Amino acid sequence: PISIEGHIFLCAIIHDISARIMAQEELQATTERWERTFNAIPDIVTLQDTSMRIVKINRAGCELFGLLPDEIIGRRCHELFAGLGTPCPGCPCKKGLSVPFTPHFQEVYHEYLDKTFRITTAPVPDAAGKVEYVAHTVKDISQNKELEQQLLQTEKMRTVVGLAAGVAHEINTPLSAILQSLELVQMGIDPDNEENRKIARRHDLSLRNLQAYLAEKRLDYFIDGARQSAINSGEIITRLLEFSRPRAGHVEAVDLREVIRTTWRLAQSDYTLKKKEHILDVKFIEEFAPNLGAVPCMRIELEEVLFNLIKNAVQAMADNNDRQPRLILRTGKLERYACIEVEDNGPGMEMEIQQRVFEPFFTTKKVGEGTGLGLAACYSIIHDKHHGKIEVNSTPGKGTTFFLFLPLQANKNIPAEK
């Protein structure tokens, strides 16, 4: 109030703040829109200060770690992502602070999460051009890496298959000649053959004495050994040709429980697995999912895969004498796949071996005990013929599990069960 000559007056100043209110509302709307966009990004995005403390994280990052934003903000990047007390070796955030200020990229495997990430960092300068924050983006590329490995394995299989076919054909002809020659040698010195005796008499030669000489010098043993080796080599070539020759399988709807039980009975009747690997001592456990229904697949090929996996498991457990051998076969469903698990409690495998088990000709068995084609054939059957997946998980000293994923295709293209 203002007093003038005894009179009281009120003075009011009116400012039009409509523009300011509209600007504030627009700023609020822009901020909220930015927050929604920030949280809608599927990759993990954090904003970090120059000491690598996280000052902001989006929803994808919170969901990955199962934490609230307040539980993450203030922590250092290397503490959250790697559980380290110091920056990671080759830290991309530190590179983002270097001159010139350019984005940096790095791929990192996170052992705890069992995922591979592509990390991108970019400097965020202040008004003066000095780096104030670092934008840290983490993209989960695990699936891409898996697809790359599958593509690499497929290309490797194609190359080896072509090579195997060529080598098998080139070797088969001279090997057949060697085997035939050795058989003719054995037939030519057989004393019970009348034609041999006639020719021997013309040359004043006793076939019985020749047989005795060969036996004393063990030459007959070496000839027979060479013949048997040629036969074994021929069997390997036959397997190579079968491996390289595509077979047209018949797709039908089958009960996985029946396929598994049939294959297990077949494995139990295998002479080598019974006598040498003692398969009858293995405790067989079924863990079948109820109501899985019929699954479209190539039954004969699937039985071949299961037989190979069972045989490998039994052979591995035969060398593990400190516990009862146990084999578990499970069925289940995961999204659009029917799943089969073959789990043993054998000695397990190191990661280096797991990464190579599906490579053709790779084997950990002794020379003469395996060709290294079994698991490669399994990979080809599941991946190429069924368009499914086969994976392995193993822990040294605890055992190995193989996972088969068979697509659950539409039944309209599958012959009905009779």
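[next item in queue]
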Amino acid sequence: MGTSASKQLFDSAGSNDVVKLRSLIKEGIDVNMTAGPEGITALHAAAEKGHQRTVALLLENGAEVDRKTAEGRAALYIAAKRGHVEVVKSLLEHGGDIETNRKNGRTAIVIASKKGNVEVVKYLAGRGANLEACRNDRCTPLYYAAKKGHVEVAQFLIDSTAALEASSIDGTTPLMIAAQKGRPVMVEVLIDRGANVEACRKDGCTALYLAAKMGQLRIVKLLLEHGANADARDTILGITPLAVAAIEGHLEVVKHLLANAHASFTSTNQVR
């Protein structure tokens, strides 16, 4: 079968035309043929669109469940990213590898957490997905949920014993990234669940330092209310949250630190 058959296969997979697909399969079409240099198969195309019936039919007729695109994406990863939980179920029921990952190490539960696809996250966790799975930079599902502000996902992961203090390769914890990205509700959730407000990255930056640097006044207030040290310095420049807020021009943060945290400049961290 040539180009025409390939087009028919991908058209039927992309449009969820199971009648046409059955006809093509009966004629002996190779369901694992790829389209272009991207290495996309009909299974990838159907998973992307959330076409569960097409996915099931392809799998029942020899589609390679863990086949990856040129970018290293398996159908499970694609479906998890798009939030297609029924497709995720079909893929796993047909033997899909729950820990299949891209070249950067990102698994299905990592991408589902990053995208806020809570039902997919719950299903994958229920099937035994590794909650501490991480990319090559060691960012876990909880880290990504915190970074993107997906509170329901984060709460579920924490309730499922995900490590609160698991950090990225530079030592950034979920609390730190939530503070840096301006996610006040997430910060509250993480603190309430026991996150360490005094934890610091390899460069000495704490959640308070990062919030102050980014001008996140509400988060600065939250962290101070929960005992964050206003005078903790980074290890690169030796400056405090107050100093970095001043350097970055965040006047309201500076005022709050001076008025409510007794923060101060010292001879080693004066703004020049």
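[queue empty]
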